[in-house]
Each structure stands twice: as C-alpha cells, then as structure tokens.
C-alpha cells in the first residue's frame, strides 16, 4: 500500500457511519470513505424484504457526512476504528440470512449457528488457537472481568482440594494476583476493588524507567505461593509500548513446573491484547498465555469481543467460570442469545487481519514514522516522544508526543486545532484533561512534559499527506497559544 494514496482494494475500505432506514427505503447515509464501499443494504418500495446490493447509492445525500468530516483528519484509531466495508457486508448478510435463534433446530436457527461457527474459526485462526478455545463476549471489559473472577474462583476450588479439611477461611489465606501499573481500567479497577474488599491480595509491578515496560524478572519475583493469576497487557494503549509477554509466559511455564512439583498452585497467565491485534501478529501459543482478550472495534470490527481460553473445558485447560447464568449458550461459560450479526462482523474483521497483517503493519509504521519526522522538523528540539524508549518496541501506529513549553498542555493544543481529531490519552479518561497521565508518570515522564502529551494513532488508511496536514494544524494551534500568552 502506498501511504500517499488511498488503497482501493475491497479489503481496505471502511465506512464511518451505518445506513439509515427511512420509511420503506434504506437510504445510504452520506459517508466519509477512503473509497466507495460498493455495498449497500436496501429495501424494496413494494415490500419490506431487504437485499444486498453491490452498487453504492448515488443520491444527493451522499456528501453530507463527507462535507462534515472532509476538512478534518482522524488520528484516534487507538480509541476506536470504523467498520471495514467487508465487515459491514458480513454483518448485513448475517442479519439478512442468519437472523434465527442459534439455539433453534430449524433452518433459520441452523443458519445462525453456521455463521457463528465460521466466525469462531476465523477468530481462532487469527491468533493461532482452536475454535473450541474461543468464547464470544460483549467486549474487552467483560472478557477481562471474566478472567479475573475465574481466577479467584479457581483459587478457592483448587486450594480446598489441597487441604485436608477441604475448607478454608478468608482470614487464613487469600488469592494473590500480579499485574502491572500500566493496565486498562477494566483490569486495574477490578483489582483495586478486590484489594479493597479483601477478596484478593494484589501486586502492581512498576515498569522500568529505561524501557517503559514491565521487566520479566520483576513480574516473576512478585509471585507468591498464593498467586493464582498474572495479567499484563500486550501493548499499552497510550504509549504503544509492547510488553514482554512471550518472555513472561516462558518464565511462568518454568515457574509453574516448580510449583506443581512442590505441591503449590499453578498460576494462570492472561494478556489483554486489545491494542495489539490488527497492528502486529498475535499468536496465543507463541505468547504462552492461558487467556487472551480481543476487542473488535480496535481493528475495524464491531463493538463486541472474544476471549481465548487455553484448552477450555479440558482436564488440563485453563479454568473459566461464568459470571452469570442463563440458557447455556457458549457452553454455559457465557450464556445469552448470541449476537449473530456482530459475531459475523468480528469473524470477518479477524479474517482480514489474518490475510493482511503484514501489509497493515508496514503501512501504519511508514505513516507513523513520517509523522514523527515531520514533528521533529516542525518543532526542532521542541518535542518529546513519550513512548520511544531504548530497549522497547512499539505497535506501529502509535505516537505519544509532547510539545514542549509552558501553557502547551495537550488538551489546549487539541482544543485550538481545526483539523486533527485526536486525544490526550485513553478515551475513557478524556474528561480528565488537566491531569497528567498516570501511565506516562509511571514510565518516568516528568509531570510538566506528561501534561503536554497528545496521543496520535494512525490507521490502515492514513496517508502521508494527512499527517502533514495534522502537523501543520498542531503548529498553527501552538502559535495561537503562544501569541495569546504573549499578549496577556
């Protein structure tokens, strides 16, 4: 893919907004697309029957959203991504032909069940797993909570079997979980709650100030005989720094052999791979994890997720306990009528990653590196790249940068920018604009620099021209701030 141009291959097209039904017609909402999607769901004027068309709408409405967004550049792909056109087509197709209840034994139900099976295969293939190891969930938060709660339940079930009494009390021992201080709130806040409620003892391992990542030896040394789980994210959502998951997995495997030989509990290993999938190759076996969280909307899929569980439901497999109970879907591990359309979209998004990951990675790295070079040229000795540290690698799309200088806080720069759509950090923390990111502070970024941080994350279709537009926009914003300060 030439970073200077939009790719017109079918598998590279995206759509930013869904279609909208008006009366009996399905009008193609005006979209800002990298190219024509050529996939439209329509409804006949004579009936309510929906069909899949390969012709884009040519109505006068087709430029409304393009007009709204054409003068801006979206560089917040770590927050969320638009649907790829093939993903949208898969969702539309599933909703059209596989609308039945997957638990039903008639044709409509069998169609839905078939779509879900194919999607499960696609998810598994993408991460080098088997289909039986994949559970569909509502998203990353549910998947992470499912793992954490399963680890606690497994601890008590396993510990009880290893005691002569068969029962123990919370006062005598508690499960222990090791994590990092870099985690997403769907891990961090749950663990803080466990500690507050005395459900578990928690150790948050601090990252190295040299590499910005947790070090393997620090994670392993934090483990105790009561450790039931280690959970460390694969790539940080703010800095893009990749954590040494495979190395931790290998060390834990040796540690668990020693623990098993001495009669201690075996600790499970989980990684939240939400920010890594679709940007780098992710293989569950290579990483050596027992659980892996993936989130569709981070890689041009719908807003659902999936959880990989190693050897699920087998004697030597990782434990998984349901958080709620119902009709027995997902083998009772995650009951509730399956969201067939979104599952189909997730499967297609995974298939696209499997097919194109090398191309995606190369393109995003080229554009990101060009962005950083232009920032350095535009602000000589005036920028600090907060995730570019010796001894660590980043996912290829992420640039966390601070424009150095008093009064150049990230939220101020972005608020005066006219074209760039970006954030100062994690989307779920975007309201706390005046506070330096705890993640940046944890990796040793001075507070005055951290407050100036802007997270720019490019996508599959970002171009060199777009990032140059963004750099000029940021420069104009900085000049406005500085000139305003000079007159005060």
Question: How does this model look, in words?
Answer:
By secondary structure, this protein is of the alpha/beta class. It contains 13 helices and 18 strands. The protein has helices at residues 64-69, 85-97, 107-127, 140-161, 185-196, 216-221, 245-261, 284-287, 340-378, 410-416, 438-442, 447-450, 464-487, and strands spanning 14-15, 20-22, 25-27, 40-43, 50-53, 73-74, 83-84, 134-137, 176-180, 201-205, 227-231, 268-272, 291-295, 305-309, 383-385, 398-403, 420-421, 453-457. The strands form 6 sheets. A 7-stranded mixed beta sheet has the order 8-14-13-12-11-9-10, sandwiched between helices. It is globular, with a radius of gyration of 24 Å. The relative contact order is 0.14.
Features:
single chain, 488 residues, alpha/beta, 18 strands
